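Kindly review these tokens for lecture notes.

. . .
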Amino acid sequence: MMTGLLSPEAAAGRVFDLLIERGAALRSGGTTFWAWPRQDRIVIVFDPAMIDLARVDDKFVHALSTRLMGRKVKRTNTRGLFLQIGYELPSLPAGTMALDLSKQPTPLSLPLGTTERGTLWIPLTDMVSALVAGATGMGKSRLVHGWIQALLTGGETVVHAWDGKGGTEFARYIAEPDFHLVTDLRATMTELLAEAKRRRQLMLRSGATNLLEHNAGGGEYLRPIAFVIDEARFVPADVRPMVAEIVEKERASGIHPILATNNPVQAELLVKTNLVTRISFRVPSHGASMMALGMTGAERLEGRGRGIMVWRGKPIEFTSYDVNLPRPSEEAIALTVQLAEERENDTAEAADEFTRLAESIRDRWSPGMSRRRTAELLGKPYGGSWKDKVDQIYAILGATTTTEPLVAA
């Protein structure tokens, strides 16, 4: 585990590995980027001819920050593409307590941290559903890891987790019997909706109004299910209504959504669902705080681990626990590599399909045509899951269509 100052060599190694993993490096020879040490940060300067700029995106930045243990990573492209990487790990507030799972009050208790009244654990059944927001490196992911570890230690809850980064965040838990790493979010959400329907039918027969009442009645025992999504803004557009349906309608069936995001504004559709418990670490603006908590204040929090929870209508300030992450097993590392390769293959296949679709309408398409009109040429709506696809096809057409100058006869 890296601690303290980050060397330019270590930063460059992480960047290079991620470029290869995500298929962003276009050529094997030559210099892909330079690592420029500055007083307070390392600046990565890319050669635009050597990389696929579109793949060094927000997901790339998020994944890089994760691999650098939460160090701040900022992407700028005003005069070429640069990544600015902070040297030091974000500091924990004075008095931060290490998470001790031997002090878990009940198998369903989730650790929040310390407040002015002492330590605070929240029962999963009381929390119902949760949004956890916060800028990269401010403590959001560590809190979620602490919750997963607590639920797995408690042994009563089945945990499904999706990180939107090919398993790099949560694959370390795959050896746990109650943990399921989600690789196909759409398929998992379909399964959870089916399970919710089955549970509602069982509770209807038992006369119960919720999971606890049903289990107390002696019928088929139903275990609580927690499904964790990190990063919520990367959820595909056609899956978001499925997530929202579980949040809005399935709280009685014992399925508990936990959504995490470092940009609540971009995750607006999911953030605006009726998530009962809202938590935010520092965010960049009062607008992001309003989106996450329904109130300002999170933009003024100082230091990693400092947060505000709105629970039962009341704001509670806290300092989260210091959570250690288990080292990934060889099995977890192998799975992460396999998922990265599958994702790269899927990306290549999608690129080929987008190119084919672009060529199918090229003779009817012209520069300046709207994206909505482009979608009509494809026979598709400009919305839902097709919005992002049409945008990519539009970009291909724009980049590969030339306009010949008129030549006077």
Notes: The mean pLDDT is 85. The chain has twelve helices and 14 strands.
